[in-house]
Write a structure and sequence with these properties.
By secondary structure, the chain is an alpha/beta fold. The protein has three domains: 105 residues, 2-Layer Sandwich (Alpha-Beta Plaits), CATH 3.30.70.920; 312 residues, Rossmann fold; 88 residues, Immunoglobulins (Immunoglobulin-like). The protein has 13 helices and 25 strands. The strands form six sheets. It has a seven-stranded parallel β-sheet with strand order 8-11-7-12-13-14-15, with helices on both faces. Helix 8 packs parallel to helix 11, helix 9 runs parallel beside helix 10 and helix 12 packs across helix 13.
């Protein structure tokens, strides 16, 4: 059984507005009190050469050397129409571009902002319009999600929600230890009143009543299904849910794996799209039942075999990786080892691995865990109705499962394995996976754009962008059908529209254009080139900015 630890932490609220402006500003922060960096560990932010130079000159490392608090930068970045250009640790400040005067007012009201100085006016070119919007932040902001904002924003989940993908029509089966007072707690009230609690089943006691026994399932469900704006909103607030009790917290034995198999089969029978299980098994009260690491090959334990069978039936199976990362058994647990599951590791709000998160690989060498999500100080609702923060891959898994439901809602014709692939490919360390976080923390808006790119690949108006890896120039070719307001947009991977180029296009025209100067200011990383007509996306192409 995955162990749960309860913590409490409050997070400040944000707000966003719409009025237009276009200027550069210098924003100074009030402090570095909560920075994750420390002068006692200068190697985390200074090179050894820099440290040696200071020692030679008898210059001590002090607070001024500490980097700007990354959470402060993150809180600015998520506001629509804000582009971070540079930061200064010496002045504890950032240089930003703002295209929205109301957003500037919101920045000024943040408790950690000391001052704002205008440093440059930027006239708008009639053809190249700098970012005036960021998909999603005007409708779904920090105040809306309450304490759950960071675990959603980490995955750019608010962008999918603003596009209308909130899990509606998707069914998530939750296999857990009990769902104490889910039928009473306010954050779940819409699940019941809207008829989205499709079924309940208790495979431990053999009945249909699951609203007791354990608060674990209550907390897990809230990560996905909570829907009380201003208090807590989960990653899939409009999904359908099936609540299934398979774990007996009073003991630990192999029968619970068999309960789980019955629960998975029930989930399959009721038509669940996604199965979330924040349970894992390695050792039992009777040591003769224990699994070994060799058993973690995806094909030995019954529960893992059953997980793969569920996946073969088209269900997306999302599992906790396990909480044994600092224990003698530090590997993943079953069924996280199953080949076709998405095993989810835990990170903190800075996307750093939580110390308890279990390691891979599976014993047959398969990459595990697959991805990671927020499992340290994750916002959860408990049977007393309070939103608290808890630790465990028990919570990173449902956060991700809910986001997967939103992504699948956007692409209903894709298979479970295609959705799994999109999620993995959007991981922040997809090109350098490891046995700690797998492919890393998925960016679900990037996954959405990757899915759009695939879905539009057969369009007669296919966008051709080359080279796919560029330094300062991109060639754009496409064949138009119909007149209208044609535009090329460049977006970053958190949905911010960095600039737009309007195009003079007629019907049945072969269009060739080049982006050059517009690309010089972009930093290294992934971007998406979007072709639209009358504000409707026609095609999307992913490119990579490299430094020569």
């Amino acid at each position: 059984m995955i162990k749960v630890i309860f913590l409490s932490l409050l997070i400040p609220f944000l707000y966003n507005g719409n009025a237009q402006t276009s200027n550069r500003y210098w924003v100074r922060f009030a402090d570095k009190i909560n920075t994750p960096f420390s002068i006692e560990s200068p190697n985390e932010f200074l090179s050894q050469r820099s440290i040696d130079r200071r020692l030679k000159s008898n210059v001590a490392v002090d607070v001024q050397d500490l980097p700007v608090d990354p959470m402060y930068i993150s809180e600015l970045s998520i506001l629509g129409g804000v582009t971070i250009w540079n930061s200064s640790k010496w002045f504890n400040a950032v240089s930003i571009h703002v295209s929205d005067s109301l957003t500037l007012d919101s920045i000024a009201s943040l408790p950690f902002v000391l001052s704002i100085d205008k440093v440059k006016s930027l006239p708008l070119d009639p053809k190249i319009e700098f970012a005036t919007k960021s998909l999603g932040h005007s409708n779904y902001h920090h105040l809306y999600y309450g304490m759950a904002f960071r675990q959603i924003e980490m995955h750019t989940g608010q962008l999918l929600h603003n596009l209308g993908f909130d899990g509606a029509g998707m069914t998530i089966a939750v296999l857990d230890a009990g769902f104490d007072k889910v039928d009473e707690v306010d954050v779940f009230s819409t699940i019941i009143s809207e008829g989205r609690l499709l079924s309940t089943r208790d495979f431990v006691d053999g009945n249909n009543y699951v609203f007791n026994s354990s608060q674990h399932g209550t907390a897990v469900l809230s990560c996905m299904g909570a829907n009380t704006p201003g208090k807590m909103v989960g990653t899939a607030p409009k999904a359908n849910y099936v609540l299934i009790r398979t774990e007996d917290v009073a003991s630990e034995s192999l029968v619970e794996e068999d309960n789980w198999i019955a629960g998975a089969e029930f989930a399959d029978s009721i038509g669940a799209d996604i199965l979330n299980t924040s349970l894992g098994y390695t050792q039992f009260d009777d040591s003769s039942m224990n699994h070994t690491y060799a058993d973690m090959d995806g094909n030995t334990t019954r529960i893992s075999i059953a997980a793969d069978i569920a996946a073969s039936r088209g269900i997306l199976v999302v599992t906790s990786a396990g909480n044994m990362g600092s224990q003698p058994w530090y590997y993943i647990s079953a069924p996280a080892d199953a080949d076709s599951t998405i095993a989810v590791a835990a990170v903190d709000s800075f996307m750093v691995r939580a110390v308890f998160s279990s390691y891979g690989p599976a014993s047959d060498g398969d990459l595990k865990p697959n991805v990671a999500s927020m499992g340290f100080r994750t916002a959860c609702t408990f049977p007393n109705g309070n939103v608290q923060q808890a630790n465990g891959t028990s919570f990173s898994a449902p956060v991700l499962a809910g986001m997967a439901a939103c992504l699948w809602q956007a692409f209903p014709n894709k298979s479970n394995m295609e959705i799994k692939s999109l999620i993995e490919r959007s991981g922040h360390q997809y090109n350098t996976p490891d046995y700690s976080l797998g492919y890393g923390v998925p960016n679900f808006y990037e996954a959405y754009l990757l899915g759009k790119e695939e879905s539009l690949s057969n369009s007669d108006e296919l966008l051709r962008v080359f080279p796919t890896q560029f330094t300062d120039k991109l060639n754009i070719h496409f064949h138009s059908q119909g007149t209208g307001n044609w535009k090329l947009s460049v977006l970053n991977n958190i949905g911010q529209e960095l600039f737009v180029k309007s195009l003079d296009v007629t019907d049945n025209q072969y269009v060739q254009t080049v982006l050059t100067d517009e690309l010089m200011r972009l930093s290294m990383g992934n971007y998406f080139i979007c072709l639209s007509k009358d504000d409707q996306e026609i095609s999307v192409s992913k490119v990579l900015k490299i430094i020569p």
